[in-house]
């Protein structure tokens, strides 16, 4: 599809590079198994005020698993608002949130185009639900706020060349990063919120090393585990002890509620860890 | 009766009446105030550049550029274009000489370099997503595209994928001891997608974008590719070779600020403001950009663009070449 | 999102609804029990050109049609060259999630609208969560079935369309048949012309003609105060404290489950929170700060208004803030997964539809 407004490449389709050892199972190096304890998240770096011309902005970097000091997930968020709505829109007693999540073309293994695709819109819906619970919306009638998250680098490790299904678990990690960075940007913009909301991910994984017994870990990286059975991403408000957004996906081995409850609890724990980083960063900005 | 005077803090004054604000700053009323721009720089002073390369792990080459408040991220991804997918592909016959012109034509005709600039990331309040690319974004992309092809930084030979890997320095020798001319078959090209993302925008996007492109291309490493007859596809090995980039063209832009906002050209004073920021760009209609390359020892001008007014003439252009040279030295040092 | 459509209820009506739904037991506007579904009309086999189709009409007038079509596609990529003897066995086959393409069409919305993208992502997630579905589409090492599910909402979206679309998809998948394979091994596939010999995608028991396995179904559950309410109508959603979309599937029964009582064992496949329209509703004004009632404080400036806003006056509607407590959410999920509960009834009801 030729986009008239951008420089399009060659009319024929280009193929991303196929590596020789892609199908050779013996060569595919599995990343070293998870070295962090099951209840520790990766090092997170958060900074606000990256875009001075916006009302608020923030930048998040998560360290890459297995390579300390090298960052994996990189997100940037800008908040514009509260600004007045166009005259043609209906009266709204609450602030109108519009979230946009966009992957940069160089963010993931497969180059993404410039038009927003359904996964990005889905992430935007989740982000909107997560933030709507945190913002005090009725203080700003007839206004709108735009929250734009640009994903500069996704979480997938470049070395793993297989595993299509892992893209879905990466979306959860990305979503939790988006929630945390958007919350920091909202605080930087000075929009009233009931509490700081941070995202956390917990997963039920099965590793051959543990004789196939499933266990729950937080902040999972798909390449560190043999199989991820189920995962959930939680957006949590620590002071009020409330969840604003829950996204759970996977195949629970039984209908036992205990495993599900434990998974959500661990997700809340992950979110609390992220919240600590968030509060520290905002404290530096404000104080 | 004395009129009550209104006093505003500086940022409010800047928003309400930007032109007098900048004018007052450039030629102050009293002798004691220093003359300078609103951002504290001298008219001939550009912002310092911070370049950070190889930060992205999914791109073959990347660079993050920070000049003042402007932040640009450039990622270069290489993808394979098999010859079969090129409509109207014309393989070069053995008798045809390969000239610089024909090489550049090959690069351009097959669209092997694809730069794109994304401004709609919320980098400034006027660039919000949800709308198709604005005129500014399209203009910037086109300027980068034409400069990329015009400067000849990338040689099409580096992007060709041959049927067999040609090892450096090895020549096939047949029984007569003569060097055998191999009939190498071209199976594909590397296409370089150069994507620029503006994280923060504070004026002078072209300079920052161009520096990012050059830095990212210099950082690019292409995998070594060959044709796999079994799979009938181009396969790459894990080792990579750096892309050869010729020269180091650097862009230098300035805006012309007129004393009289609306008036006859030629009336009043003017100032040349190097590396304008967002406020200055909105106030100036005339812009001049010069791209120079001093890497070969002598200064070569790769491009001159001037639009919007009539203040800058031949004399000023010559003087501007000196300024551009200075900028080249700064940027060249930052790239090391 | 579809839930953000303006709900034209006044603050007084919202407060009334909320109060009546918070009672024990809750009094719903149409007098239903909390876990009673509205009657629906379902039929299959309405589109002769498809491999499977279904149509469901809900009692509030919303209607959806789903058509399932299948095409044989060549498996590309490295998977085509690998595998071997063990690929023939069921458990070593790998299905890919790209073999199922789902599109949702809602009248009045563009197909790349975020609400539609959310719905289609949710439905696709539920279908592919256990990984077993894509395996059914495997033909041989070089070819597979590509399934196209087209979900159309025919009526305008009066209420949140997720449960309707999910039930219709479930029914259409139950009715889907794929032609019987006549070729052997890895040769180019060719199929039996006889449609009557075509097996169902979800195999059925020959004697009782009940399905042996079932596709998942997504339910919309909401909570108001301490009450959990299923199949909420539009008005009820407008006063919800929290709403969840829960996708459940069937689990294989193990020996020690047999004695746990009637009903089938259910498996949790995915959960998503739905942003209820209650957050966009206009707030009511308590008498104390209403100038029409002679309140002096109404003409004061901002700080007073802010303080008044913070107090909750009973009977005055205020949009919910914050989120939901984890225990409340867990209770919702538990109720949905209950053996012999709502999900069971829905699955039984759909199973009873005649697959003409």
Overview in brief:
Chain B is of the alpha+beta class and 336 residues long.
Beta strand % of chain B = 25-35%
Q: How would you classify the helix and strand content of chain A by structural class?
A: alpha+beta
According to DSSP, the number of beta strands of chain B is 12
In the CATH scheme, the class of chain A would be: Alpha Beta
Please count the beta strands of chain A (DSSP E, at least 2 residues each): 10
The whole-angstrom Rg of chain B is 25 Å
Distance separating the two termini of chain A:
50 Å
- Give the overall silhouette of chain B: elongated
Report, as a whole number of angstroms, the end-to-end distance of chain B.
Answer: 64 Å
Provide the helix percentage of chain B.
25-40%
Question: Notable features of this structure?
Answer:
heterotrimer; A: 287 residues; alpha+beta; Ribosomal Protein S5, domain 2; 5-stranded mixed β-sheet; 4-stranded antiparallel β-sheet; 10 strands; 24% helix; 29% strand; globular; C: 356 residues; ribonucleoprotein (chain B); ribosomal protein (chain B); mRNA 3'-UTR AU-rich region binding (chain B)
Report on this structure.
- Chain A: Keywords: Cytoplasm, Exosome, Nucleus, RNA-binding, rRNA processing.
- Chain A: Its main location: cytoplasm.
- Chain A: This is 3' exoribonuclease family, domain 1-domain-containing protein.
- Chain A: One of its GO terms (cellular component) is nucleolus.
- Chain A: Belongs to the RNase PH family.
- The complex is a heterotrimer of chains A (287), B (336) and C (356).
- Chain A has 287 residues and is of the alpha+beta class.
- Chain A has a single domain, classed as Ribosomal Protein S5, domain 2 (2-Layer Sandwich), CATH 3.30.230.70.
- Helices cover 24% and strands 29% of the residues of chain A.
- Chain A is built from 3 helices and 10 strands.
- About 2% of the residues of chain A have low confidence.
- Chain B contains 8 helices and 12 strands.
- Chain B has a domain of 184 residues: Ribosomal Protein S5, domain 2, CATH 3.30.230.
- Chain B is an alpha+beta fold and 336 residues long.
- About 4% of the residues of chain B have low confidence.
- Chain C is an alpha+beta fold and 356 residues long.
- Chain C has one domain: GHMP Kinase, N-terminal domain (Ribosomal Protein S5, domain 2).
- In chain C, 22% of the residues lie in helices and 20% in strands.
- Chain C contains 8 helices and 9 strands.
- In chain C, the strands form 2 sheets. Chain C has a 5-stranded mixed sheet.
- Chain C is elongated and about 85 Å long.
- About 4% of the residues of chain C have low confidence.
- Strand 1 of chain A pairs parallel with strand 8 of chain B, so a sheet runs across the interface.
């Amino acid at each position: 599809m030729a986009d008239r407004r951008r420089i399009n490449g060659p009319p024929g389709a280009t193929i991303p590079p196929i590596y020789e050892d892609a199908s050779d199972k013996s060569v595919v190096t599995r990343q070293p198994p998870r070295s962090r304890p099951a209840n520790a998240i990766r090092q997170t770096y958060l900074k606000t005020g990256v875009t001075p011309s916006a009302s608020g902005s923030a930048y998040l970097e998560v360290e890459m698993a297995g390579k300390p000091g090298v960052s994996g997930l990189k997100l940037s968020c800008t908040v514009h608002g509260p600004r007045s709505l166009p005259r043609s829109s209906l009266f709204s007693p609450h602030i109108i949130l519009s979230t946009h999540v966009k992957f940069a073309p160089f963010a993931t293994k497969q180059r993404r185009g410039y038009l927003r695709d359904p996964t990005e819109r889905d992430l935007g819906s989740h982000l909107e639900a997560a933030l709507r619970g945190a913002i005090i919306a009725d203080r700003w009638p007839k206004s709108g706020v735009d929250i734009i998250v640009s994903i500069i680098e996704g979480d997938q490790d470049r070395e793993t060349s297989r595993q299509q299904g892992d893209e879905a678990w990466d979306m959860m990690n990305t979503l939790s990063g988006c929630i945390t960075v958007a919350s920091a940007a909202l605080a930087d913009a000075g929009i009233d919120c009931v509490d700081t909301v941070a995202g956390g991910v917990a997963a039920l994984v099965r590793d051959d090393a543990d004789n196939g017994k499933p266990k729950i870990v937080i902040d999972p990286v798909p390449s560190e585990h043999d199989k991820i059975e189920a995962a959930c991403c939680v957006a949590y408000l620590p002071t009020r002890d409330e969840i604003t957004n829950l996204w759970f996906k996977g195949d629970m081995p039984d209908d036992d509620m205990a495993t599900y409850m434990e998974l959500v609890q661990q997700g809340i724990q992950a979110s609390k860890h992220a919240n600590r980083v968030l509060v520290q960063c905002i404290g530096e900005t404000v104080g | 009766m004395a009129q009550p005077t209104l006093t505003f803090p500086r940022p409010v004054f800047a928003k309400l009446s930007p032109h007098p604000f900048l004018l007052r700053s450039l030629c102050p009323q009293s002798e004691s105030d220093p003359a300078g721009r609103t951002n504290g720089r001298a008219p001939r002073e550009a912002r310092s550049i911070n370049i950070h390369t190889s930060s992205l792990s999914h791109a073959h080459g990347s660079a993050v550029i920070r000049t003042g408040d402007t932040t640009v991220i450039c990622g270069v991804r290489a993808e394979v274009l098999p010859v079969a997918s090129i409509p109207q592909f014309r393989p070069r016959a053995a008798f045809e000489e390969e000239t610089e012109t024909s090489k550049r034509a090959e690069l351009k005709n097959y669209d092997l370099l694809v730069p794109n600039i994304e401004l709609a990331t919320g980098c400034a309040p006027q660039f919000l997503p949800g709308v198709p690319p604005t005129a500014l974004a399209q203009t910037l992309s086109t300027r980068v595209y034409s400069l990329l092809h015009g400067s000849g930084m990338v040689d099409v030979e580096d992007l060709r994928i041959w049927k067999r890997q040609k090892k450096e320095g090895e020549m096939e020798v047949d029984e007569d001891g003569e060097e055998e001319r191999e009939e190498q078959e071209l199976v594909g090209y590397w296409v370089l997608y150069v994507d620029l993302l503006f994280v923060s925008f504070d004026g002078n996007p072209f300079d920052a974008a161009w520096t990012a492109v050059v830095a990212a291309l210099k950082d690019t490493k292409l995998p070594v590719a060959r044709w796999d007859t079994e799979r009938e596809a181009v396969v790459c090995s894990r080792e990579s070779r750096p892309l050869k980039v010729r020269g180091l063209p650097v862009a230098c832009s300035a805006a012309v600020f007129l004393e009289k906002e609306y008036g006859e050209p030629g009336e009043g004073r003017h100032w040349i403001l190097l590396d304008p920021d967002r406020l200055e760009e909105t106030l100036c209609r005339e812009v001049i950009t010069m791209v120079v390359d001093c890497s070969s020892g002598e200064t070569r001008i790769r491009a001159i663009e001037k639009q919007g007014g009539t203040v800058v003439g031949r004399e000023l252009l010559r003087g501007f070449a000196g300024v551009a040279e200075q900028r080249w030295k700064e940027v060249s040092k930052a790239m090391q | 999102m579809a839930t953000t459509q303006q709900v034209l209820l006044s603050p007084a009506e919202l407060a009334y609804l909320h109060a009546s739904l918070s009672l024990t037991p809750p009094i719903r506007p149409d007098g239903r029990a909390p876990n009673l579904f509205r009657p629906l009309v379902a039929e299959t086999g309405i589109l002769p050109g498809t491999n499977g189709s279904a149509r469901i009409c809900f009692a509030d007038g919303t209607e959806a049609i789903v058509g399932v079509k299948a095409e044989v596609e060549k498996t590309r990529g490295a998977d085509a060259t690998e595998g071997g003897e063990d690929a023939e066995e069921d458990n070593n086959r790998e299905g890919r999630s790209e073999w199922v393409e789902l599109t949702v069409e809602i009248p009045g919305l563009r197909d790349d609208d975020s609400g539609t993208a959310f719905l289609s992502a949710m439905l696709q997630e539920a279908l592919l969560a256990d990984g077993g579905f894509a395996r059914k589409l495997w033909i041989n090492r070089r070819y597979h079935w590509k399934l196209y599910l087209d979900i159309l909402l025919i009526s305008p979206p009066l209420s949140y369309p997720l449960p309707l679309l999910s039930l219709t998809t479930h029914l259409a998948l139950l009715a889907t048949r794929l032609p019987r394979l006549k070729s052997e091994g890895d040769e180019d596939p060719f199929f039996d012309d006889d449609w009557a010999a075509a097996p169902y995608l979800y195999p059925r028991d020959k004697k009782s003609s009940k399905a042996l396995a079932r596709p998942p179904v997504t339910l919309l559950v909401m909570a108001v105060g301490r009450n959990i309410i299923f199949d909420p109508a539009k008005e009820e959603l407008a006063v919800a404290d929290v709403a969840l979309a829960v996708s459940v599937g069937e689990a294989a029964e193990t020996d020690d489950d047999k004695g746990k009582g009637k009903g089938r064992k259910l498996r949790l496949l995915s959960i998503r929170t739905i942003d209820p329209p209650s957050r966009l509703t206009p707030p009511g004004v308590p008498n104390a700060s209403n100038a029409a009632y002679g309140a002096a404080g109404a003409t004061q400036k901002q700080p007073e208004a802010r303080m008044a806003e913070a107090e909750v006056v009973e009977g005055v509607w205020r949009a919910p803030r914050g989120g939901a407590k984890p225990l409340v959410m867990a209770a919702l999920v538990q109720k949905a997964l209950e053996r012999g509960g709502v999900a069971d009834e829905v699955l039984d009801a759909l199973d009873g539809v005649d697959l003409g």
